[in-house]
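Hi U.,

Before I forget, here's the chain from the pilot set. I'm dumping it here mostly so it's searchable later in email.
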Amino acid sequence: MNAPEMRTVGSSTIAAIGYDPGARELYVQFHSPPGTYVYYPVDAAVFEEFLRASSKGDYFNRKVKGTSDEARPRGRAPGDTPFERAIAHPVSGAQYIPGVAV
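Structure:
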């Protein structure tokens, strides 16, 4: 499946967003670290509100982040980033990120 049309947004955090209504997938492209993440299932109303939000980063943090079943970098499998591996492999309740000394 190809990514939907991405709409550039005025945000210091988020570069563009897109929505696939058939799959109920919200695509969010970030400035830093660069990458496009896919969130699902997401209602079309959330996408429309996101487009109209005066602060895209605030809206993302309040209405998208942590509310979908999964988020992943586009083109990568779930668990394929250090952050996702840290969540998937807690050690004694602490987060462990491979290659990072604590």
